[in-house]
Amino acid sequence: MAHPEGKKRRGSRAPKEKPEFDQQIVDLARVTRVTKGGKQMSFRCCVLIGDRKGRVGYGIQKGKDVQIAVEKAVRQAKKRMITVPLIKETLPHAVHAKFKAADVLLKPAPKGSGIIAGSVIRTVLEMAGVPNASSKMLGKTNNKINNIKATFEALQSFQVKAKTPKKAGEAVSEEKKNV
Question: Which residues form the S5 DRBM domain (predicted)?
């Protein structure tokens, strides 16, 4: 089919649409299940997704090949999205969370300090769009999946004060749990 102006367009493609969320594969493992019929191989994939504007999610799924595992994990991550509250470009307050042997401490950091975190905690905070934060892995495990789950527990436990209009005889602010 000819171009409307009569010029041929070779190798031109439509501009790529930017995906809704950035995604990063954190852990990819080939796992086997031993059955009576032999070993069944599959792939386990852990994916982090985020919009870098305060929303982040994770998914862990298995599939017969890597692509299927990644697609399933991304689908699950979209269902597990959480919103991270930010106050003055950092976390609202220090928070501590534990999941199995993973123990995580997240603290606010001054403006300009960046993300001071190791391992997958840094990736979670980057995907969430937290510009300044400090963290410490207190647990004795390097298990990425458990560290991600502990970090998500910490991010979900933030207490933020939401201001409400003052009515006769009521307090100005009410403490709400941000999920």
Answer: 21-84
